[in-house]
Write a structure and sequence with these properties.
The chain is α/β, with parallel strands linked by helices. The strands form four sheets. Strands 1, 2, 5, 6, 16, 17, 18 and 19 form an eight-stranded mixed beta sheet that branches. Helices cover 27% and strands 25% of the residues. α5 (212-225) packs parallel to α6. The longest helix is centred in the first third of the chain and has 37 residues, at 12-48. It starts with 11 loop residues before the first helix and ends in a 14-residue tail after the last helix.
Length: 379
């Protein structure tokens, strides 16, 4: 009987070499399987996103705080004269203060228009004033740093519907937002926040300041569309002796100019985060109400041979308020301004308007006076 010889037993080195090769083959196989699974998953993700590669989501942009600068009455020109340099001369001395804010906002009294019929008929005079500058003067606002203007005032209709239509077109081309017409809510974006601007006055071409119910409803709608709401009110009696904020309704030239206190408190109750005022042509105090600030008037800001000047009529200011994302004032800054020449604003190193605003705030609002200082944290 023949017996075959058994296969030789592999040496230790040969055994380990074969084992390593087997492990390597297994690893390659597993790698291929993983690659296939990954490819399938990637294809599915691409199909669900239009074939684009999946990207890591960018971090959310910061939300505030945002600094808002408010000024009073601005007239672009009239039959009494136009500022040279297409209007740029008016703002040359205060440009740096306006441009340093995230949002600069003012009350535009007058039109950027040509032709049309003035509300004063012939040439004005006898207490009637109509303001008009050519549309190509509107970019002067943007160059100065203005981002938006309020058109809810008694001079927005100086040249009727046609004059206002030309004005809004000129502002849009200059990239300056406008607000104040009936039902209008203007939303701008700054530092990751949506800011709604709403203007009110006592005229049919504006949101009515005397309708508190309607004002509350409009502000609520604005609050639903934006993170912050800023309300501009053109209200109050006019004149050098009208520096105090009275209780109750104010009249001027036979017009009901609204109840400034009641209006401001009502819109804050409805969701406004900042209320700013114009109309009296003089400075009035600043009030703190429900954790929000109300600046009742900052006087005249810029004109051209059309404002009465001297004493309190020449005192002005730029109020800069920093709001956090919740609408609370984190800081306030009153920049004192004085009007010179035909109505040009410039920094007042005597700080007269700041002192006046602080005194009026204490007299009219007592412990609720708003902070008027270079840099104050609000509570």
């Amino acid at each position: 009987m023949l017996v075959s010889n058994p296969a030789p037993r592999p040496t230790s080195a040969t055994y380990h070499r074969r084992r390593a090769m087997a492990v390597g083959s297994l690893a390659l196989a597993l790698s291929a399987v993983v690659g296939i699974v990954a490819s399938v998953a990637g294809a599915g993700a691409g199909a669900g996103s239009g074939g684009a590669a999946t990207k890591r989501r960018a971090p959310a942009p910061p939300r505030g705080p945002v600094t808002i600068a408010w000024v009073g009455d601005i007239t672009p020109g009239s039959a009494m004269g136009l500022p040279p340099g297409d209007g740029r001369v008016q703002f040359a001395r205060v440009r740096r203060f306006l441009r340093s804010a995230d949002l600069a906002f003012g009350n535009l009294e007058g039109t950027y228009s040509t032709g049309g019929t003035s509300k004063c008929g012939g040439g004005g005079g006898q207490g009637c004033y109509a303001f008009q500058a050519p549309p190509d003067h509107a970019p002067a606002l943007r160059r100065a740093g203005f981002d938006a203007v309020n058109l809810a005032n008694n001079h927005a209709w100086d040249y009727g519907a046609a004059g206002q239509a030309q004005t809004t077109t000129a502002l849009r081309r200059a990239r300056v937002a406008a607000t104040g017409r009936p039902g209008e809510i203007t939303v701008v974006r700054r530092r990751g926040l949506r800011i709604a601007l709403v203007g009110f006055a006592a005229y049919p071409w504006a949101n009515p300041i005397g309708d508190l119910g309607g004002a509350r409803a409009l502000v609520r709608r604005a609050a639903a569309r934006a993170d912050l709401v800023v309300v501009a009110m053109h209200a109050g009696a006019e004149g050098a002796d009208q520096t105090h904020v009275p209780r109750g309704t104010e009249m001027a030239f036979g017009e009901n100019r609204g109840d400034s206190r009641a209006f401001a408190h009502a819109v804050i109750g409805a969701g406004a985060d900042l209320v700013v005022g114009s109309g009296p042509h003089v400075i009035r105090g600043v009030e703190r109400y429900r954790g929000r600030l109300i600046a009742y008037s900052l006087g005249n800001f810029a004109g051209w041979s059309n404002f009465g000047l001297g004493g309190t009529l020449s005192e002005s200011g730029i109020l800069k308020v920093t709001l956090n994302a919740a609408g609370r004032p984190a800081a306030s800054h009153w920049i004192p301004i004085h009007l010179t020449g035909p109505g040009i604003p410039e920094l007042d190193r005597s700080r007269a308007s700041r002192k006046l605003a602080a005194e009026l705030s204490k007299q009219d609002f007592g412990r609720a006076a708003g902070m008027i200082c270079p840099r104050c944290a609000s509570t």
